[in-house]
Amino acid sequence: MKGTIIFLLLAQVSWAGPFQQRGLFEFLLDDEASGISPEEQFPILTDEVQPMGPVCPFRCQCHLRVVQCSDLGLDKVPKDLPPDTTLLDLQNNKIAKINDGDFKNLKNLHVVYLHNNNISAVGSNDFCPPGYNTKKASYSGVSLFSNPVQYWEIQPSTFRCVYVRSAIQLGNFK
After folding, report:
1. Which residues pair with 67 in a beta bridge?
2. What is the fold, at CATH topology level, of the domain defined by 52-174?
3. Which pTM does this prediction carry?
4. Within 10 A of 162 (CB to CB), how many other CB atoms are there?
5. Which residues of 73-88 are buried (b: 16+ CB within 10 A; e: fewer)?
6. What is the pLDDT of residue 114?
7. Is 19 helix (H, G, I), strand (E, B) or coil?
8. Domain residue spans in the chain?
9. Of 139, 140, 114, residue with least CA distance to 129
10. What is its main location (predicted)?
11. Which residues are within 8 A (CB) of 162 and not within 5 positions of it... i.e. 6 or more apart?
């Protein structure tokens, strides 16, 4: 019985045809016959580029919801930050201004490091956009020390989305 099974297995292998090398692009002919165009099979060939969504900003390092962009000479907050970012490190750059909406899509953002930049003004909606639910405050801290911002010019409502007011670090401009 065992010999018969081995014979049948060997017989099946011997019935298989030999491998035949086909031309480099002959596989496309099979797809054309099936109705699949090369553009559908290889979307990179099309002129239309689909947006990939937020990715790690150029030259920054992203790992486990931490975006580290310090010491890069950046002059503004990078766009298209991953929406699940919890910690954003922008210290030691040349950022001069926080724009409305720079942190708008970052719903889980907690220890924003902006110290040692060139920020001279902070708007009342920079960290907490209008209509944002302040009961779900997102920041546990904002560091703005070593910036030319005058703390007495910052509106009290600017940090309304910060959990603990003592977690706001200002002053010590060089």
Report:
1. 62, 88
2. 3.80.10
3. 0.65
4. 21
5. ebeebbeebbeebbbb
6. 96
7. coil
8. 52-174
9. 139
10. secreted
11. 127, 137, 139, 140, 141, 142, 168
Three-state DSSP class for 142? strand
Report phi then psi at 66, rounded to 5. Answer: -110, 125
Length of the chain, please? 174
* Pair of tokens at residue 118: 């060139």
Q: Which are the contacts of 19, defined by CB distance < 8 A and separation ≥ 6?
A: none
Q: Which pLDDT score is estimated for 164?
A: 78
Contact of 121 with 97, CB cutoff 8 Å: yes
Query: What does pLDDT average to in each consecutive run of 10 residues of the chain (174 residues)?
Result: 64 54 54 57 56 79 95 94 93 93 83 92 82 65 92 86 82 63
Look up tokens 């580029």; give the residue.
49
What is the reported pLDDT for 140?
82
Taking alpha carbons only, the member of 53, 56, 58, 62 closest to residue 74 is: 58
pLDDT score for 49: 58
Q: Output b/e per residue, 24-40; b: 16+ Cβ within 10 A.
A: eeeeeeeeeeeeeeeee
